[in-house]
């Protein structure tokens, strides 16, 4: 059985308290990975065009207050 399927079965078989603990751990793990990817994208300039567009909209007074 491929490892992902094995992991899915193991997670599905967890008792509720362990599943809550796993979910909490995975949420933190996933958020940390996403933060790292976002930082990499910012540092590499991948988001520069989007930032420039947002600033242009702001400078042109085309933004609404939240």
Quick recap of the structure?
With 66 residues, the chain is mainly α.
Name the descriptors:
66 residues, mainly alpha
Q: Output the helix-strand order.
A: HHH
Number of strands: 0
Tertiary shape: elongated
Rg calculated over all Cα atoms: 20 Å
Largest beta-sheet details: none
The N- to C-terminal Cα distance equals 50 Å
Helix content range: over 70%
Tell me the β content. Answer: under 5%
**Broad structural category:** mainly alpha
List low-confidence stretches: none
The tally of helices reads 3
Could you report the average pLDDT, rounded to the nearest whole number? 96
Question: Mind explaining what this structure looks like?
Answer:
It contains three helices and no strands. The chain has helices at residues 3-12, 16-44, 48-59. It is elongated and about 55 Å long. The chain has 66 residues and is mostly helical. The N and C termini lie far apart (50 Å). It has a domain at 14-59.
Write the layout of secondary structure elements.
Layout: H1 3-12, H2 16-44, H3 48-59
